[in-house]
Design brief:
The structure is a homotetramer. By secondary structure, chain A is mostly helical. The first copy, chain A, has helices at about 5-25, 30-40, 45-50, 55-75, 80-95, 100-115, 120-140, 145-165, 175-190. Chain A has a single domain (about 5-195), classed as Tetracycline Repressor, domain 2, CATH 1.10.357. Chain A has nine helices and no strands. In chain A, helix 8 runs antiparallel to helix 9 (about 175-190). Chain A is elongated. The N and C termini of chain A lie far apart (about 65 Å). The interface of A and B includes residues 108, 125, 156, 158 and 162 of A. The structure holds a DNA duplex. Chains A, B, C, D: Pathway: Amine and polyamine biosynthesis; betaine biosynthesis via choline pathway [regulation]. Chains A, B, C, D: This is HTH-type transcriptional regulator BetI. Chains A, B, C, D: InterPro entries: BetI_C, DNA-bd_HTH_TetR-type_CS, Homeodomain-like_sf, HTH-type_TetR-like_transc_reg, HTH_TetR, Tet_transcr_reg_TetR-rel_C_sf, Tscrpt_rep_BetI.
Chain lengths: ~200, ~200, ~200, ~200
DNA sequence: AATGAATGAGCCTTCATTCAT
DNA sequence: AATGAATGAAGGCTCATTCAT
């Protein structure tokens, strides 16, 4: 029973299905049929709305990115001090929306794909730049610029590292300990402000 | 002209070819023909020696692992103090053997595969445990046990994060700055020894 | 805004679009969406008016045929002598309306289709018969019947051959030289009237 | 039971199957499965030996071309006088090898494809050039050069036209009457040598 | 009158894998 | 020891066609 105005509904459903499928498989090695099946539509329809598989995958990545961006903006909005901003960024990186097995797997898969696909790499760079600028908005006022840059890089690396290492753990992701680790890094770096680079 | 004792030669050649192929593709999405072609043999021979593709891939991973292990032992052998041990571990993580586009891509690909394949996950855990115990052999004597554990986790995450983020950078990997970042983390943690957390 | 009496307009537009699409592609291998797109309507509408794709194609062929017939009648109307009739038929075969890349491609494509589809073959036979009778109306009075038949067949073959061979030439079709070749054939046959075969 | 040295056998079988399939369908619109099926192998094998469908089709065309070339050389070898050469060329154009429903259909289909595919067009031009030079080797000595050129073009057009018009006839191709028609054209042109262009 | 929504069927192509030699 | 031959299975994608609105 075709109703009108289904396009946005289907697009959303297919992107969600893609995330679910990628999460379940743990890689981008999912079939269009699989994704379409999860979304409850035929593979042909997925092609109808997204063209090729790559396009759907990129749209999925873009969706993850925009969610991450929205979460970031929301978190930053409630943060008063620069220090608060840092914590807010760290917190949302491991929030329940982001730090979930499915989403983690999807991010990881996209990282791999980025090595091959320039389009994916471009998208991932957007994420990296955004994370960096968010972190710098907190770290900048608290220490010398070049040092802030380095700490931001360290925080970002640690976050991504914790994401990737989730693959090795059993059970549900432990966001709290991940957050504590990064916070401790930041805290120590702030405390050692007088000292070295 | 079949010669005797070719098995080890072929196995080595095929594993090297697998690393090369994975490195070039940037993912495990390589064909047996591709690998065999690089090794200069027929795909049938690859099956003859390794059974299935997954077996070859696991053997490849195991090879990477043992190389990493050997590098680690070598590095540790020359380190006198605990502090030296830490630096040695960090150094070899970014050594020219390890921190190369091809090897990085392979590691990353295996991380992804680990999410699906228990066998791969097991192998990757071996790596994680080994890295951890190596780090602990340096950090243990220098700070309280539980804190050392956490710092080791932080170092490991940072290393893996720097690996993964290589995918976003252009040009050759910059090992020096990566090492500096991790060393600085360790240094600051050691300096803040009296304090938290 | 549905208007009444749109049917003939749409049918005409779709048939023109089909010719354009076939001409552009150089074969009948065009999609309904393509044709509908050129006509500025939805593929569903094309089905609504024509049933199946084959029906639209046949209608297109019929349109070409009726155009050819009309051109022929017009040309014959102005021809006084039998000899004039022959020249008129040859001329319209290579007139600007007929001897155009698009139309040529369409004719050729239909010839191929005729091998498979009896309906198409029937239509094409109508064309052949019409061309033959037109030619005979000129050749008949000028030579013995059986010889006229053969010359008509030769002229028809030459015309179709020149059409098909257009596919091999670059640039715009050269109608003049094509006409000259056929006219020369006719002329020589008329001159050799007394002789063979 | 795989034996060695099958490649040439399979290639031949697949090309023959392609001709058969195209002949049966009357167009290039045949599937790889169909062709492979006729050849008695799997579709995968067809791809194994020919790469893509287009490559198999081109190889098929090239085969037809080389057969035509071989037939032409053979025919020309036995012709003593220029006049004999002309007749020989005409004869082989309608020989039992060439003027068969299947081969005719294949030629026609390739003509259509040539409008789209530059590679096919190139191949077809080879055929046209060869036919032209063959004809000129007979017509050249018998009349003025520019006139010979035109007669050669006329003969070629008539031959191709008779091929295409086969699609309209029922029953087996009538080679004899086709040959007679072309021969008569040549004869008349030769007889009218003194006269017009 | 017209279309967006949706799909089944089918095709090309790739690839891991097997087997006889 | 090594490979050419061969295929089954599966995936991406296209397209004519239908249907409710």
């Amino acid at each position: 029973m075709p109703r009108i105005g289904m396009e946005p509904v289907r697009r959303k459903a297919l992107i969600d299905a893609a995330i679910a499928a990628i999460g379940a498989r743990g890689s981008l090695d999912v079939t269009m049929s699989e994704i379409a099946g999860i979304a409850g539509v035929s593979p042909a329809l997925a092609h109808h709305y997204f063209g090729a598989k790559d396009d759907l995958l990129q749209a999925t990545m873009r969706h993850l990115l925009s969610e991450f961006g929205r979460d970031g903006r929301d978190a930053l909005a409630g943060a008063k001090t620069p220090r608060d901003r840092i914590s807010a960024i760290i917190a949302i990186s491991f929030s329940q929306t982001q730090f979930q097995p499915e989403t983690i797997a999807a991010w990881l898969a996209f990282y791999v794909e980025a090595q091959r696909s320039p389009a994916m790499r471009r998208l991932l760079k957007v994420y990296a730049r955004r994370l960096n600028s968010n972190l710098m908005s907190g770290l900048g006022p608290l220490m010398e610029r070049s040092r802030a840059e380095r700490v931001a890089e360290g925080v970002a690396a640690m976050i991504d590292g914790l994401y990737i290492r989730r693959a090795l753990k059993e059970g549900a992701p432990n966001a709290a300990s991940a957050i504590a680790l990064v916070e401790n890094y930041v805290e120590t770096m702030l405390a050692a402000g007088d000292a070295a680079p």
